[in-house]
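Agenda item 2: adenosine-5'-triphosphate complex prediction
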Amino acid sequence: MSQTTDKIVVEDIRKSFGSVEALRGASLSIKAGEITAIVGDNGAGKSTLVKCLTGLYSPDSGRILIDGQPVHFSSPRDAREKGVETVYQDLALSDQLSVWQNMYMDRELVRGIPGFTLLRRKEMRERAGELIADLAVNVPGVRRSVKRLSGGQRQAVAIARGVMWAKNMIILDEPTAALGLNETAQVEALIRRVVEGGMTVLVVSHNFEQVKRLSQQVWVMRAGRVVGGTRTADVTGEQLVGMVTGAVRTVE
Ligand SMILES: Nc1ncnc2c1ncn2[C@@H]1O[C@H](COP(=O)(O)OP(=O)(O)OP(=O)(O)O)[C@@H](O)[C@H]1O
Ligand SMILES: [Mg+2]
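Presented output:
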């Protein structure tokens, strides 16, 4: 029914750690301009799959395609250069730096010639401020040190940074696991705005209610494989639980 096309395709990916087969041939697709969720029990292989998409791990076999083209990520930098940004829990921000400095961390705008460069601080500050305003992120100001922000505000800054740099997709691994109800609602609203702006989002979540609220497509992982996938609107939260535990076989 959907008119959108596949932004990312994962084909039959395998990844072992010694004798542990974390991924045993996992396949899924992610449509452009949608929120896709991955669910599954502890140890199902979700984070391993995500790490293959973020360049932290190289799959032992299988393929990843962006816009139909096979890609090989040998590092997180590589994945970022191909337009895939990841928002990690906790590790995301540097406490000593301000909001705008965090948004440009490792990717500062400079002028001058190599070996003699100046940071374009004003421009970075302004651009960061504009994006924060565009996304209606509830952050008191881009000069503020992130140390003084709440958990939800920090997560919002990390997501805004992803938006700033992602050309293809933003991956969120448990984006609200550490947040309270209000902050969770704010971060979910932000994720929706990001997608309304045309971005593609992949979210790993243990929270089935959140998956129902947020995503258009959900894939279920079990024991290193993707065992089912469905349009989110077509399942209840209960059915999702059944698919995760294996009580319900299905769905495509
Ligand atoms: N670096 C590693 N070295 C060895 N084994 C690993 C490594 N990473 C993951 N595994 C194993 O691979 C399997 C899948 O782990 P993974 O972290 O991908 O699961 P998950 O679905 O993200 O689980 P959770 O919901 O608990 O985060 C598990 O058995 C795990 O112990
Ligand atoms: Mg995990």
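Discussion summary: The first strand starts at residue 6 and ends at 17.
Owner for follow-up: CH.
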